[in-house]
Amino acid sequence: MSNIVLGGGLSGLSAAYYLLKKLPNKPIAIIEKSDRLGGWIKSNILNDGIIFEQGPRTIRPSGTPGINTLTLIDDLGLSNQVVPILSSHPAARNRMIYANQELHSLPSSIFSIFKKQTPFSKPLIRYLVQDLFSPKKTINDESIYDFVNRRFGREFADYLISALICGICAGNSKEISVNFIMKKLFEYEQQYGSISKGLIRNLLKKQNVNVDLKGLPLQAKKERWSVYSFKNGLETLPKYLESYVRKNNVNVELDSKCNNLEICDNSIMLHFENGKHLKADHVISSLPSESLANILQNQHSHLSDLLRNIQNVTVGVVNLCYNEKLISKEGFGFLVPPKEKLPILGVIYDSCCFPKANNTVLTVMMGGYWFEQLFGKHPEEGVLLQTAKEQLKNTLGISRNQLILRSTFFTSVFLSMLLDIMKI
């Protein structure tokens, strides 16, 4: 018998990697229903080294998860492939929102919080002060929108947090639990009376903690990385992980869909669509919640129902490349607050983050929580492409006839799984 990992995305590959570290002599298998590993991370390398990312494109180096990921990259021998964006880079400093028919830069320094910046009607410091004096509300949970509105005010919730939630998980901030997506901030209020007090206390605690960094984590700290990717796109990481686990005798089975999981007294039986059966000591699932719900339905119907209640949304992703420089102000890109009622969630300036000659490479994200309402269940790719080009013309003034390359992709994204990817 062996340890089996269901799902061969980044979570599944990472699980297999750490199992090899902990149990080097135990048989391990990865079962993946598609014909490739890597999950939602997919980097298409086109002409002149242009990269179209159809999923996540950067990783944050901060915190314990960030240190763990950088250590993993060192272990894989992948350090020389890393391309960091430093905190001083325009892509790190310039993050924008599109509101009231124009782009607005978000505060990016300690000094900027004392200045009024549109679309906000007062300096950011005023909202932070409001949090200090807002009364604590003892509750178990509420939506992230209601939480932020209560602590900082409606403008902060409408223009900042709602747009941020669109960028993180393409969701509706008015329906996502604060305990799910920003649990630590909620705990700060419940424990200390305000978010600001909690942040200050946490900062003081961190100053007294010595972490012995070395290798890539130490380099990232010294050079003040904001985010990073790889020379050949983010898919480099799952590809190297795949190579590592295969070399260490992990059995990888593609095109294998598990349709039933049966937990016995001392083992677990997995039944597959093709009639195959496997017995395992332990099973680690990195499947989307709905997929896991389907294979648990027969034996654990209550758990299956709970998993199905985890909402999923669909995000349309359109990559576009133009043969000249078209972005007047460099930055990471912009997000669109839902109150603007546009069909896009935001636009990423890929060529500002990772320049490629004189080309402008953009990624338009659309739909999310509102995808079906805007486009129906199964829109033609041409509809998404046309929408992307129209929105780029309206928001950035980019005309359609300058387009030289494009790709269109849309997929269902499960909020909990996407957050796992973003945290890594």
Structural class: alpha+beta
How far is the N terminus from the C terminus?
29 Å
| Helical stretch tally | 17
What is the strand arrangement across the widest sheet? 7-6-14-15-16-13-17
Q: Would you tell me which CATH topology of the domain at 2-40 and 233-308 applies?
A: FAD/NAD(P)-binding domain
Give the proportion of residues in helices. 25-40%
| Unreliable stretches covering 5 or more consecutive residues | 414-424
Mean pLDDT score? 89
Q: How much of the polypeptide forms β-strand, as a percent range?
A: 15-25%
* Tally of strands: 17
Seen as an oligomer or otherwise, the chain set is: single chain
Radius of gyration: 23 Å
The CATH class of the domain at 2-40 and 233-308 is Alpha Beta
Largest sheet: 7 strands, mixed
Subcellular location: Mitochondrion inner membrane
Pfam family, one: Amino_oxidase
Protein name: Protoporphyrinogen oxidase
Pathway: Porphyrin-containing compound metabolism; protoporphyrin-IX biosynthesis; protoporphyrin-IX from protoporphyrinogen-IX: step 1/1
Which SSEs are present, and which pair or pack?
Blueprint: E1 2-6, H1 10-22, E2 28-31, E3 43-45, E4 51-53, H2 63-75, E5 82-86, H3 90-93, E6 95-99, E7 102-105, H4 124-133, H5 144-152, H6 154-169, H7 178-181, H8 183-192, H9 195-207, H10 215-223, E8 225-230, H11 236-247, E9 251-253, E10 258-263, E11 268-272, E12 277-285, H12 289-296, H13 301-308, E13 312-322, E14 333-335, E15 344-349, H14 350-353, E16 360-368, H15 371-375, H16 381-396, E17 403-414, H17 415-423
Helix pairs in contact: 1-11, 5-6, 8-9, 12-13
